[in-house]
Amino acid sequence: MTVQDVRAFNRFYTNVIGALDYSRQLYAPYTLTESRVLYELAHSPRTDAADLRGELSLDAGYLSRILNKFERDGLIERTASRQDPRRVRVTLTPRGRETAALLAERADESVGALLATVPAADRPRLSEAMRTVRTLLSDGRPPRREDVLLREPGPGDLGWIVARNAAVYAAEYGFDASYEGLVARIVADFAEDHDPHLERVWIAELDGRPVGCVMCVRDDTPATARLRLLLVEPDARGLGIGDRLVSAVVDFARGAGYRDLVLWTNDVLTSARRLYQRHGFVLTAEKPHRSFGQDLNGQDWRLRLAGEVE
Protein backbone atom coordinates (compact mmCIF):
# COMPACT_ATOMS: atom_id res chain seq x y z
CA MET A 1 0.00 0.00 0.00
CA THR A 2 1.23 3.50 -0.86
CA VAL A 3 0.40 7.02 0.25
CA GLN A 4 -1.36 7.49 -3.07
CA ASP A 5 -3.60 4.49 -2.35
CA VAL A 6 -4.75 6.08 0.91
CA ARG A 7 -5.27 9.48 -0.69
CA ALA A 8 -7.27 7.92 -3.52
CA PHE A 9 -9.49 6.15 -0.98
CA ASN A 10 -9.95 9.40 0.95
CA ARG A 11 -11.09 11.17 -2.22
CA PHE A 12 -13.46 8.32 -3.03
CA TYR A 13 -15.00 8.23 0.45
CA THR A 14 -15.43 11.98 0.82
CA ASN A 15 -17.39 11.91 -2.44
CA VAL A 16 -19.49 8.96 -1.24
CA ILE A 17 -20.59 10.71 1.98
CA GLY A 18 -20.89 14.16 0.41
CA ALA A 19 -18.29 15.69 2.73
CA LEU A 20 -17.38 18.40 0.23
CA ASP A 21 -20.96 19.73 0.17
CA TYR A 22 -22.19 18.56 3.55
CA SER A 23 -24.43 21.54 4.33
CA ARG A 24 -26.41 21.12 1.12
CA GLN A 25 -26.71 17.38 1.64
CA LEU A 26 -28.22 17.85 5.11
CA TYR A 27 -30.14 21.03 4.22
CA ALA A 28 -28.42 22.91 7.05
CA PRO A 29 -26.09 25.93 7.21
CA TYR A 30 -23.26 23.95 8.80
CA THR A 31 -20.17 22.30 7.36
CA LEU A 32 -19.06 18.77 8.20
CA THR A 33 -16.62 20.09 10.82
CA GLU A 34 -19.25 22.35 12.40
CA SER A 35 -21.73 19.47 12.49
CA ARG A 36 -19.13 17.26 14.17
CA VAL A 37 -18.48 19.89 16.86
CA LEU A 38 -22.22 20.11 17.47
CA TYR A 39 -22.41 16.32 17.70
CA GLU A 40 -19.64 16.22 20.30
CA LEU A 41 -21.38 18.89 22.38
CA ALA A 42 -24.58 16.83 22.30
CA HIS A 43 -23.02 13.46 23.13
CA SER A 44 -19.71 13.88 24.92
CA PRO A 45 -19.33 14.55 28.67
CA ARG A 46 -16.21 16.58 27.85
CA THR A 47 -17.59 20.05 27.07
CA ASP A 48 -14.62 22.31 27.78
CA ALA A 49 -13.35 24.12 24.69
CA ALA A 50 -9.88 22.69 25.33
CA ASP A 51 -11.30 19.16 25.46
CA LEU A 52 -13.13 19.70 22.17
CA ARG A 53 -9.98 21.01 20.56
CA GLY A 54 -7.99 17.98 21.69
CA GLU A 55 -10.69 15.44 20.84
CA LEU A 56 -11.18 16.74 17.29
CA SER A 57 -7.58 17.87 16.66
CA LEU A 58 -8.76 21.36 15.70
CA ASP A 59 -6.76 24.57 15.59
CA ALA A 60 -7.69 26.82 18.52
CA GLY A 61 -8.55 29.76 16.26
CA TYR A 62 -10.67 27.60 13.95
CA LEU A 63 -12.64 26.12 16.87
CA SER A 64 -13.13 29.60 18.33
CA ARG A 65 -14.67 30.81 15.05
CA ILE A 66 -17.01 27.82 15.00
CA LEU A 67 -18.11 28.45 18.58
CA ASN A 68 -18.60 32.14 17.82
CA LYS A 69 -20.92 31.17 14.96
CA PHE A 70 -22.85 28.78 17.21
CA GLU A 71 -23.19 31.50 19.84
CA ARG A 72 -24.55 33.99 17.29
CA ASP A 73 -27.04 31.35 16.15
CA GLY A 74 -28.18 30.77 19.72
CA LEU A 75 -26.95 27.17 19.82
CA ILE A 76 -24.49 27.34 22.72
CA GLU A 77 -23.63 29.13 25.94
CA ARG A 78 -20.05 29.65 27.16
CA THR A 79 -19.20 30.00 30.85
CA ALA A 80 -16.05 29.80 32.94
CA SER A 81 -15.41 26.37 34.44
CA ARG A 82 -16.04 26.14 38.19
CA GLN A 83 -12.98 23.94 38.64
CA ASP A 84 -10.66 26.16 36.58
CA PRO A 85 -11.80 29.68 35.58
CA ARG A 86 -9.20 29.65 32.81
CA ARG A 87 -11.14 26.92 31.02
CA VAL A 88 -14.33 27.66 29.07
CA ARG A 89 -17.30 25.32 29.46
CA VAL A 90 -19.51 25.03 26.38
CA THR A 91 -23.11 23.79 26.68
CA LEU A 92 -25.94 23.49 24.18
CA THR A 93 -29.03 25.65 24.53
CA PRO A 94 -32.46 24.09 23.91
CA ARG A 95 -32.20 25.41 20.35
CA GLY A 96 -28.76 23.83 20.08
CA ARG A 97 -30.03 20.44 21.24
CA GLU A 98 -32.89 20.66 18.76
CA THR A 99 -30.49 21.52 15.94
CA ALA A 100 -28.11 18.69 16.89
CA ALA A 101 -31.01 16.22 16.92
CA LEU A 102 -32.22 17.44 13.52
CA LEU A 103 -28.75 17.11 11.99
CA ALA A 104 -28.41 13.61 13.47
CA GLU A 105 -31.77 12.60 12.02
CA ARG A 106 -30.84 13.87 8.57
CA ALA A 107 -27.43 12.21 8.74
CA ASP A 108 -29.12 8.91 9.66
CA GLU A 109 -31.42 9.26 6.66
CA SER A 110 -28.47 9.98 4.37
CA VAL A 111 -26.47 6.99 5.59
CA GLY A 112 -29.58 4.81 5.47
CA ALA A 113 -30.04 5.70 1.81
CA LEU A 114 -26.40 4.81 1.18
CA LEU A 115 -26.70 1.45 2.96
CA ALA A 116 -29.83 0.66 0.96
CA THR A 117 -27.62 0.40 -2.13
CA VAL A 118 -25.55 -2.36 -0.50
CA PRO A 119 -27.06 -5.87 -0.79
CA ALA A 120 -27.82 -7.44 2.58
CA ALA A 121 -25.46 -10.32 1.82
CA ASP A 122 -22.56 -7.87 1.40
CA ARG A 123 -23.15 -5.82 4.54
CA PRO A 124 -21.20 -8.13 6.89
CA ARG A 125 -18.17 -7.71 4.59
CA LEU A 126 -18.60 -3.93 4.67
CA SER A 127 -18.94 -3.94 8.46
CA GLU A 128 -15.82 -6.07 8.88
CA ALA A 129 -13.84 -3.85 6.50
CA MET A 130 -14.86 -0.72 8.42
CA ARG A 131 -13.95 -2.36 11.73
CA THR A 132 -10.55 -3.34 10.33
CA VAL A 133 -9.82 0.22 9.18
CA ARG A 134 -10.80 1.65 12.56
CA THR A 135 -8.73 -0.89 14.48
CA LEU A 136 -5.59 -0.42 12.40
CA LEU A 137 -5.72 3.37 12.30
CA SER A 138 -6.98 4.13 15.82
CA ASP A 139 -3.46 4.12 17.30
CA GLY A 140 -4.66 2.06 20.23
CA ARG A 141 -7.41 4.52 21.23
CA PRO A 142 -9.88 2.75 23.52
CA PRO A 143 -13.58 2.85 22.59
CA ARG A 144 -15.69 5.68 23.99
CA ARG A 145 -19.24 5.70 25.33
CA GLU A 146 -20.44 7.64 22.30
CA ASP A 147 -19.08 4.92 19.99
CA VAL A 148 -21.84 2.58 21.22
CA LEU A 149 -25.08 2.45 19.24
CA LEU A 150 -28.42 1.17 20.57
CA ARG A 151 -30.53 -0.29 17.78
CA GLU A 152 -33.33 -2.71 17.02
CA PRO A 153 -32.38 -6.35 16.36
CA GLY A 154 -31.59 -7.45 12.82
CA PRO A 155 -31.40 -10.94 11.30
CA GLY A 156 -29.34 -13.20 13.55
CA ASP A 157 -29.41 -10.90 16.58
CA LEU A 158 -32.01 -12.91 18.51
CA GLY A 159 -29.87 -16.01 18.06
CA TRP A 160 -26.89 -14.01 19.28
CA ILE A 161 -28.81 -13.11 22.46
CA VAL A 162 -29.33 -16.81 23.21
CA ALA A 163 -25.75 -17.83 22.41
CA ARG A 164 -24.03 -15.03 24.31
CA ASN A 165 -26.27 -15.25 27.39
CA ALA A 166 -25.52 -18.96 27.60
CA ALA A 167 -21.76 -18.53 27.10
CA VAL A 168 -21.28 -15.54 29.43
CA TYR A 169 -23.37 -16.93 32.29
CA ALA A 170 -21.65 -20.32 32.00
CA ALA A 171 -18.22 -18.68 32.13
CA GLU A 172 -18.97 -16.20 34.93
CA TYR A 173 -21.49 -18.04 37.12
CA GLY A 174 -21.27 -21.69 36.12
CA PHE A 175 -24.82 -21.87 34.76
CA ASP A 176 -25.59 -25.11 32.91
CA ALA A 177 -27.46 -25.73 29.66
CA SER A 178 -30.87 -25.32 31.31
CA TYR A 179 -30.22 -21.56 31.39
CA GLU A 180 -29.65 -21.56 27.65
CA GLY A 181 -32.96 -23.37 27.27
CA LEU A 182 -34.74 -20.71 29.34
CA VAL A 183 -33.23 -17.88 27.29
CA ALA A 184 -34.12 -19.66 24.06
CA ARG A 185 -37.77 -19.96 25.13
CA ILE A 186 -37.93 -16.28 26.13
CA VAL A 187 -36.47 -15.18 22.81
CA ALA A 188 -38.63 -17.59 20.81
CA ASP A 189 -41.80 -16.33 22.50
CA PHE A 190 -40.84 -12.76 21.58
CA ALA A 191 -39.95 -13.65 17.99
CA GLU A 192 -43.18 -15.55 17.40
CA ASP A 193 -45.61 -13.08 18.93
CA HIS A 194 -45.07 -9.59 20.35
CA ASP A 195 -46.74 -6.19 20.22
CA PRO A 196 -44.13 -3.69 18.94
CA HIS A 197 -45.98 -0.86 20.67
CA LEU A 198 -45.63 -2.54 24.06
CA GLU A 199 -42.61 -4.86 23.72
CA ARG A 200 -39.14 -4.33 22.32
CA VAL A 201 -35.56 -5.59 22.12
CA TRP A 202 -32.43 -3.41 22.07
CA ILE A 203 -29.02 -4.41 20.75
CA ALA A 204 -25.94 -2.42 21.81
CA GLU A 205 -23.44 -2.28 18.97
CA LEU A 206 -19.77 -1.27 19.06
CA ASP A 207 -17.57 -1.22 15.97
CA GLY A 208 -20.19 -3.10 14.00
CA ARG A 209 -20.63 -6.00 16.44
CA PRO A 210 -23.25 -6.70 19.13
CA VAL A 211 -21.91 -6.13 22.65
CA GLY A 212 -25.10 -5.99 24.71
CA CYS A 213 -28.84 -6.53 24.79
CA VAL A 214 -32.00 -6.18 26.82
CA MET A 215 -35.71 -6.93 26.37
CA CYS A 216 -38.90 -5.25 27.52
CA VAL A 217 -41.93 -7.55 27.39
CA ARG A 218 -45.47 -7.44 28.69
CA ASP A 219 -45.86 -9.17 32.06
CA ASP A 220 -48.78 -11.37 33.05
CA THR A 221 -49.76 -8.75 35.65
CA PRO A 222 -51.94 -6.02 34.09
CA ALA A 223 -50.24 -2.69 33.28
CA THR A 224 -46.84 -4.19 34.07
CA ALA A 225 -43.75 -4.54 31.86
CA ARG A 226 -40.86 -6.91 32.53
CA LEU A 227 -37.17 -6.23 31.88
CA ARG A 228 -35.39 -9.38 30.70
CA LEU A 229 -32.02 -10.69 29.50
CA LEU A 230 -29.83 -7.68 30.23
CA LEU A 231 -26.32 -8.54 29.05
CA VAL A 232 -23.11 -6.65 28.32
CA GLU A 233 -20.10 -8.43 26.82
CA PRO A 234 -17.16 -8.58 29.26
CA ASP A 235 -14.81 -6.74 26.89
CA ALA A 236 -17.32 -3.89 26.46
CA ARG A 237 -17.98 -3.18 30.13
CA GLY A 238 -17.07 0.17 31.62
CA LEU A 239 -18.65 2.17 28.78
CA GLY A 240 -22.03 2.71 30.46
CA ILE A 241 -23.76 0.25 28.12
CA GLY A 242 -25.78 -1.43 30.86
CA ASP A 243 -26.94 1.95 32.14
CA ARG A 244 -28.06 2.99 28.64
CA LEU A 245 -29.89 -0.30 28.07
CA VAL A 246 -31.79 -0.05 31.36
CA SER A 247 -32.58 3.61 30.65
CA ALA A 248 -33.95 2.62 27.25
CA VAL A 249 -36.28 0.07 28.84
CA VAL A 250 -37.46 2.49 31.54
CA ASP A 251 -38.14 5.26 29.01
CA PHE A 252 -39.92 2.87 26.64
CA ALA A 253 -42.08 1.34 29.39
CA ARG A 254 -43.02 4.75 30.72
CA GLY A 255 -43.84 6.03 27.24
CA ALA A 256 -45.95 2.95 26.52
CA GLY A 257 -48.07 3.74 29.57
CA TYR A 258 -47.10 0.89 31.86
CA ARG A 259 -47.74 1.43 35.56
CA ASP A 260 -44.90 -0.78 36.80
CA LEU A 261 -41.65 -2.26 35.49
CA VAL A 262 -40.46 -5.47 37.13
CA LEU A 263 -37.55 -7.86 36.80
CA TRP A 264 -36.23 -11.09 38.28
CA THR A 265 -32.55 -11.66 38.95
CA ASN A 266 -30.20 -13.44 41.35
CA ASP A 267 -28.16 -11.87 44.12
CA VAL A 268 -24.86 -13.09 42.62
CA LEU A 269 -25.30 -10.49 39.86
CA THR A 270 -24.02 -7.68 42.06
CA SER A 271 -23.18 -5.18 39.31
CA ALA A 272 -26.61 -5.58 37.72
CA ARG A 273 -28.33 -5.13 41.08
CA ARG A 274 -26.46 -1.88 41.73
CA LEU A 275 -27.48 -0.70 38.28
CA TYR A 276 -31.16 -1.44 38.97
CA GLN A 277 -30.97 0.41 42.27
CA ARG A 278 -29.51 3.50 40.58
CA HIS A 279 -32.53 3.54 38.29
CA GLY A 280 -34.95 3.44 41.20
CA PHE A 281 -35.86 -0.26 41.32
CA VAL A 282 -36.82 -1.55 44.76
CA LEU A 283 -36.28 -5.12 45.99
CA THR A 284 -39.70 -6.64 46.74
CA ALA A 285 -39.02 -10.34 47.39
CA GLU A 286 -36.24 -12.90 47.76
CA LYS A 287 -36.35 -16.69 47.56
CA PRO A 288 -33.60 -19.34 47.49
CA HIS A 289 -33.84 -21.83 44.64
CA ARG A 290 -31.90 -24.50 42.78
CA SER A 291 -31.64 -23.59 39.08
CA PHE A 292 -29.17 -23.76 36.21
CA GLY A 293 -27.03 -26.22 38.18
CA GLN A 294 -26.47 -23.75 41.04
CA ASP A 295 -27.87 -22.87 44.46
CA LEU A 296 -29.10 -19.31 44.01
CA ASN A 297 -31.06 -16.59 45.75
CA GLY A 298 -33.68 -15.19 43.39
CA GLN A 299 -34.82 -11.59 43.71
CA ASP A 300 -37.84 -9.67 42.43
CA TRP A 301 -37.40 -5.94 41.77
CA ARG A 302 -39.99 -3.30 40.91
CA LEU A 303 -39.96 0.26 39.57
CA ARG A 304 -43.11 2.35 39.83
CA LEU A 305 -43.94 4.20 36.61
CA ALA A 306 -46.47 6.89 35.70
CA GLY A 307 -49.35 6.10 33.39
CA GLU A 308 -51.29 2.94 32.76
CA VAL A 309 -51.85 0.58 29.84
CA GLU A 310 -55.42 0.24 28.68
TrEMBL record:
It holds the Pfam family MarR. The keyword Transferase applies. SUPFAM superfamilies: Acyl-CoA N-acyltransferases (Nat) (SSF55729), Winged helix' DNA-binding domain (SSF46785). GO terms for molecular function: DNA-binding transcription factor activity; N-acetyltransferase activity. It comes from the Bacteria. SMART domains: HTH_MARR (SM00347). Residues 1-135 form the HTH marR-type domain. Transmembrane segments: none annotated. InterPro entries: Acyl_CoA_acyltransferase (IPR016181), ArsR-like_HTH (IPR011991), GNAT_dom (IPR000182), HTH_MarR-typ (IPR000835), NAT_camello-type (IPR050769), WH-like_DNA-bd_sf (IPR036388), WH_DNA-bd_sf (IPR036390). Residues 148-306 form the N-acetyltransferase domain. Keywords: Transferase. This is MarR family transcriptional regulator.
